[in-house]
Specification:
The complex is a heterodimer. By secondary structure, chain A is α/β, with parallel strands linked by helices. Chain A contains 16 helices and 11 strands. Helices cover about 30% and strands about 20% of the residues of chain B. Classes of the chains: A alpha/beta, B alpha/beta.
C-alpha cells in the first residue's frame, strides 16, 4: 500500500547510503566459541553452504561501477561515506580490500567533495602483514579482543584451537610502537562479555595495557539454536548484571566513562528522543515544527539502505550485515546491481502494516529499538512479543535510573547526538 | 533547615525569571501566570529550573509559609495545574520527577563541538535582486551547490528598463531545477508591461507578487490584467501612515478580482517611526491569550523565524544576510553557500538567531513567549514593541 515507504525513497537511500559494506570473505582464521556464524546459532542463510568463499573481484567492480558515477555528481548528502570491510576475517582476502581502495583512490579527484573513510572490523591476527597499507589509507580499525589472555580464551584459531591472544596483542603493540598517532586516533576495541571475563576486568585491561576505552557487547541472544541453549546460558552474561555486580569504584567509572555502552542508558536515550518532543534534527526542523518524533514509522528498524548497503560474498544485497541473508533484497548479476526498489518498499510496507496495529497500542512504540529482521520470526508471524502497554513499568525503570543518576537527563539532552 | 516537602513542576511547564518577576507557562493546558520575586523565591526557582533538578526540589513547608511571594507561587502552581507540593516520604520512588522541556538540536550540538555537518542544509529561502546587471550564468552555477537543499527562490525584479529581458525567462527555467518553489516579485508597471511573458513561464512559478506603491495603487483596479495568469497572485500594499490604512480599507472593499490576495504590510520610510511604533505595540497582557506549543517556545528561544535560513543575492552577485545586508561571499566563490551559511550561523550578531534574549528584552520574564523580533521592528530600531517597555 506504500504509505510508509515508496520505491523512490528506497532508491534515494540506496544511492546515497552512508556506508557501503563488503563482506570480503566468509573465511575466518579464528573459531570463537560465541561467533554468530558458529555452532551456537541456527542461521537459516546460505553462508558457508558447500564451503566458505572469498568475494570475487567482479563484485566490488560492479558495485563501484554503480556508485562512482553517482558520487562523482557531487550531490552526496552525508558528511562522510564509509567504505567498510567485513567478514569472516576481512584481512584473509586482502587483494579485494586493496582493489577497492585503489579504485576509489584513482577516482579521488572526481570525489574531492566527499569525505571517504575506510573502516574495518578485524580479529587482529593478520594486522602485522597489512598495517602499512591500512595506515597509509587512514583506515578506522575496530579490533575484537575480549581482554587479557584468560579473558580472551574463547577466541581460538580454527584449525589448531590455540588461543589467539599472544599474536593479536603483539600486533597491537607493534602498531602502538610504530604508528602511535594512528593508534591513538584510528584504533578502537570491542570486547564481548562472557563468563571468562567481566566488565571491570575488561576496562582495567584496556585502560592499563592498551590505553584505550573499549566498547563492549553481550553475546547475541537472537537465533540461538535449540541444542545450544544451555551452552548459551553458561557462557553469556548481561551488561546490566555486570554493572550491578561491579565495585562502587567500578560503577562510578562505568557511569562516567562508559555511559553510552549501557543498554539501559540507550533505552532511556530512545525514550527521551522519541517520546518527549524535545529533540530536533536541525534548526530547520524546529523552524518547520518537525521534532524527531514526527518522522516515526513502526518499530526501530532502519529505513532500508539509509545507513548502509551490505554486499555479500555470494552477491546478495542487504540493508545491514547483522541480519540474516535470507532477507536479501537484491542480487549482483552479470549486468550489475539488481534491486527491485518497488519490491523492497512493498516488503517493508507489508511488515509495517502488519505490525502497526500492535505498535500503536504499545506505549513506548516511539522509543522502540527492535529491528524486525533481528527478532526471531517477527517478519513471518508479524507478532511482536515485546509489545507493552504497561507504562508504569517502563517509567518506574527510568525513574529509578534518574533517581540514581540525576545528571543523566542533562547530559543526554545537552550533548547526545544520534543523527 | 529540614526539608519536608517536594516542590515539583508538571510536564512541559516553563519558568522564566526577569529582574523582578517570573512567568510560568504550561504548554499542555496553556495556563500561565506571572508573579513577583523575593530573594527566597528566586533562589528556589533558580534551583527548580536546573536540568538536573528534574523538575523537583526539596523544600521546607514552614519557610514557604513565611514568604508571601513563595507561598503565592506555590498556590498558583497548583491552581493552574502547573505543579505543586508533595509531602516527602522515605521512599525515593515517590519523588515526583519530570523531564524538563529543553531543546536538543542535533546539528547545533555538532556545530558547537565543531564537528562536521552541512551548514548549507539550513538554507530555506533565497531572494534574488534581478536587474540588467546580474550575471545569470554565475547565479545558476552557484545553485549547483543547492541541488539537495532546494530552497524557495524569490526573484525580485527591479529592472529599470521596463522590459523584462528574455534572460528572466531562461533564468526561471534553469532555476526550477534547483528550487521547490519559485516566486516572482515585481512592481505593478513591470507586471503590466510584461504580463504575457510572465504567463509563458507561469507553470514554473508557485506564486506571483505584485508590488504597488502610493503613486500607482489607485490605478490598480482598472489596469490589472490577470486573466491569463493561473497561479496565486498577491498584491503587496505598503502602509506608511494612518491615512494609508483608511485608503487600504477602501481599496480592499472596492477591489474586484476575488482570486487575488491583498497583503498590507508596514513600510518604514525613515520618518514614520511613531506610526510604526504605535502600530506594532502590544501589551504583555495580550500575550497570555496566545496559545503556544513547546516548539513555539523553543523557536523563540533559539532562532528568528522571520529571517532564519534566508539569504539575498544582490545585483552584483554577492550573497547577503537579510536585514543587515552584510556581504558574505560572492556567488563565484567555491562553496559560497556552505560558507555563507556557516558564517551567518557562527556570527555573534547573526540575524538568523536573533531572539528576544537580547537588549532590553533580555531582562523580561516574557522574553520567550513574546513574538520574535520582526523585520519592521528592527528596521525602525524599536528596542521592544510592548507598551510596558
Amino acid at each position: 500500500m506504500g504509505y510508509f515507504l515508496s520505491a523512490e525513497n528506497v532508491k534515494f537511500h540506496f544511492d546515497n547510503t552512508s556506508q557501503i559494506v563488503f563482506e570480503v570473505t566468509e573465511k575466518c582464521n579464528l573459531a570463537c566459541k560465541y561467533c554468530t556464524f558458529g555452532d551456537l546459532y541456527s542461521h537459516k542463510d546460505n553462508r558457508g553452504r558447500n564451503k566458505y568463499l572469498n568475494m570475487d573481484l567482479s563484485i566490488p567492480e560492479k558495485v563501484l561501477n554503480y556508485y562512482l558515477p553517482i558520487l562523482e555528481k557531487g550531490y552526496y548528502p552525508h558528511e562522510k561515506l564509509y567504505i567498510s570491510f567485513y567478514g569472516g576475517e576481512p584481512l584473509m582476502n586482502f587483494p579485494l580490500i586493496k582493489y577497492v581502495v585503489e579504485r576509489i583512490e584513482k577516482n579521488k579527484g572526481a570525489l574531492s567533495n566527499i569525505n571517504i573513510v575506510y573502516s574495518m572490523t578485524t580479529n587482529g591476527v593478520l594486522l602485522h602483514k597489512h598495517i602499512d597499507f591500512l595506515v597509509q589509507h587512514n583506515f578506522e580499525l575496530l579490533i575484537s579482543l575480549d581482554g587479557n589472555r584468560e579473558n580472551n580464551s574463547y577466541r581460538v584459531f580454527s584449525k589448531s584451537k590455540i588461543e589467539s591472544f599472544d599474536i593479536v596483542f603483539r600486533n597491537i603493540q607493534q602498531i602502538k610502537t610504530h604508528y602511535p598517532l594512528y593508534y591513538k586516533s584510528n584504533v578502537a576495541f570491542n570486547a564481548v562479555l562472557h563468563n571468562r571475563n567481566g566488565l571491570e576486568q575488561i576496562i582495567h585491561f584496556f585502560e592499563n595495557k592498551l590505553e584505550k576505552e573499549p566498547m563492549f557487547s553481550a553475546i547475541s541472544p537472537s537465533s540461538i539454536s535449540y541444542l545450544s541453549k544451555d551452552k548459551y546460558r553458561e557462557m553469556s552474561t548481561s551488561i546490566d548484571k555486570e554493572v550491578y555486580s561491579a565495585t562502587n569504584l567500578g560503577k562510578k567509572k562505568i557511569w562516567n566513562d562508559y555511559l553510552y555502552n549501557l543498554p539501559i542508558v540507550n533505552n532511556f536515550i530512545a525514550y527521551v528522543f522519541n517520546v518527549t518532543d524535545n529533540v530536533y534534527e536541525s534548526l530547520n526542523s524546529l523552524l518547520l515544527d518537525r521534532p524527531i518524533t514526527k518522522n516515526h514509522i513502526p518499530t526501530g528498524t532502519c529505513i532500508p539502505f539509509h545507513k548502509k548497503v551490505f554486499f555479500t560474498v555470494r552477491g546478495e544485497i542487504l540493508p545491514c550485515e547483522r541480519i540474516s541473508h535470507r532477507f536479501s533484497m537484491g542480487k549482483i548479476t552479470e549486468e550489475g546491481l539488481d534491486v527491485d526498489f518497488e519490491n523492497v518498499a512493498s516488503f517493508y510496507n507489508h511488515i509495517y502494516e502488519k505490525l502497526s496495529p500492535q505498535c500503536s497500542k504499545c506505549v513506548f512504540h516511539k522509543a522502540c529499538a527492535i529491528c524486525v529482521f533481528r527478532e526471531d520470526d517477527l517478519v513471518e508471524r508479524g507478532q511482536c512479543l515485546q509489545t507493552s502497554n504497561n507504562r508504569m513499568i517502563h517509567e518506574l525503570v527510568y525513574k529509578n535510573l534518574l533517581l540514581n543518576h540525576p545528571q543523566l537527563y542533562k547530559k543526554i539532552i545537552e550533548t547526545t547526538v544520534l543523527y | 533547615m529540614k526539608t519536608d516537602y517536594w516542590l515539583y513542576l508538571a510536564s512541559d511547564v516553563f519558568i522564566w525569571l526577569g529582574d523582578f518577576d517570573y512567568y510560568v507557562y504550561n504548554c499542555n493546558n496553556k495556563c500561565n501566570f506571572r508573579g513577583e520575586l523575593s530573594s527566597k523565591l528566586r533562589e528556589c526557582l533558580t534551583k527548580l529550573i536546573q536540568l538536573d533538578s528534574l523538575c523537583c526540589i526539596e523544600v521546607n513547608r514552614d519557610s514557604i509559609d513565611q514568604d508571601d511571594k513563595l507561598r503565592i507561587f506555590v498556590e498558583m502552581l497548583s491552581t493552574f495545574n502547573c505543579g505543586g507540593l508533595k509531602q516527602k516520604t522515605n521512599n525515593k520512588i515517590d519523588k515526583p520527577l519530570g523531564l524538563p522541556p529543553y531543546p536538543n538540536i542535533q546539528t547545533e550540538i555538532k556545530r558547537k563541538r565543531q564537528e562536521y555537518f552541512r551548514h548549507i542544509s539550513y538554507i530555506n529561502s533565497i531572494a534574488i535582486i534581478f536587474d540588467d546587471k546580474i550575471n545569470i550564468h554565475n547565479v545558476i552555477s552557484s545553485f549547483e551547490e543547492l541541488i539537495l537543499v532546494k530552497p524557495k527562490i524569490t526573484i525580485k525584479v527591479i529592472s529599470k528598463s521596463n522590459t523584462l529581458q528574455s534572460s528572466l525567462v531562461d533564468f526561471i527555467h534553469s532555476t526550477s531545477i534547483y528550487s521547490k518553489e519559485i516566486c516572482l516579485s515585481l512592481d505593478l508597471i513591470l507586471f503590466e508591461e510584461n504580463y504575457s511573458i510572465i504567463s509563458s513561464v507561469q507553470n514554473k512559478l508557485s506564486n506571483l507578487i505584485i508590488r504597488v506603491n502610493k503613486n500607482n495603487v489607485n490605478y490598480l483596479n482598472n489596469t490589472l490584467k490577470t486573466e491569463i495568469i493561473n497561479i496565486p497572485i498577491t498584491i503587496k500594499y505598503p502602509i506608511e501612515t494612518e491615512l494609508d490604512i483608511a485608503s487600504f480599507e477602501r481599496f480592499e472593499k472596492e477591489f474586484e478580482p476575488s482570486h487575488i490576495n491583498i497583503l498590507p504590510y508596514l513600510s518604514f520610510n525613515g520618518s514614520n517611526i511613531d506610526f510604526i511604533s504605535n502600530s506594532i505595540a502590544f501589551s504583555r497582557e495580550r500575550l497570555k491569550d496566545i496559545p503556544l506549543s513547546k516548539s513555539d517556545i523553543f523557536r523563540r528561544m533559539l532562532l528568528n523565524p522571520y529571517f532564519f535560513g534566508k539569504f539575498i543575492i544582490d545585483q552584483n552577485g554577492f550573497i547577503k544576510a537579510p536585514l543587515s545586508n552584510q556581504r558574505l561571499y560572492s556567488i563565484t566563490d567555491k562553496d559560497c553557500w556552505e560558507k555563507s551559511s556557516k558564517k551567518e550561523l557562527e556570527s555573534k550578531n547573526s540575524i538568523w538567531l536573533y531572539t528576544r534574549d537580547n537588549g532590553k528584552c533580555h531582562h523580561c520574564c516574557y522574553r520567550f513567549v513574546c513574538p520574535s523580533p520582526s523585520r519592521i521592528e528592527l528596521l525602525a530600531k524599536i528596542s521592544a514593541p510592548c507598551i510596558e517597555n
